[in-house]
Structures are given as C-alpha cells and as structure tokens.
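Workshop exercise sheet. Pairs work together: one partner reads the sequence aloud, the other fills in the structure field after running the prediction. Swap roles for the next sheet.
Pair: D.N. / O.F.
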Amino acid sequence: MSVFRKIRNAVGNITAYPDIAPKSPPSEYIVYNFSLISGEAFGDDLATEEVSGVQVHYFVPIGTNYLATMEELKQNFINEGFTHPRIYPYVEEDINKVHIVFDMEIEMEA
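Structure field:
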C-alpha cells in the first residue's frame, strides 16, 4: 500500500488533497505532502527500505473544537504504521483557520 493511501485511510471522511488545496476548499480539510524520501538498510549499495517523511495539514475554522479529531487522527496515523507524529498548531487569521501540522515518518520496503 502506498504512503498516500495510508494517509487517506487514516483521515477517514475528512476531505484530503495531495500537495495543495483548491481555491474553495470545504470548511474542514486536509492537505498532505512528502517532506523527505530517503533510503535505509542498504545491501549491495541499494536501499532495501525507504523512509518517507510526510506532513499532514489539518485545517478547521477558528473557534472549532478540534482536540478530539486531532487525537483521533494522531492515533489513526500510528495505527497505519507512521511514527508518533510531532504536532504543530497554528492560527491562520488571514484564512480564518486553525492549521494543525502532523509531521511524521514511515518506513516501507523499497
């Protein structure tokens, strides 16, 4: 299963876009992207494992209680095989959104 498929599985029914959101996204949405791709566990100069760093950006309107969803997403990512995510919350006043960044990695066969 691909890294992005694992992300889509973890986010469930929340609308999710790879790399960039459309100009008129829904009020709650996710954007996900790679932040790193590297090889690990080399044999004969070839990587047998690939480590992918990913960022998942969760956007909700300012004033929304997002804590339960944030915890659920964190657990879903872990259940899909990602490392425990580092979570960074931001307020994006220019778009009236709370922006939660999940920064994590996953190791898969190369």
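Discussion prompt: The first strand starts at residue 16 and ends at 18. What would you look at next?
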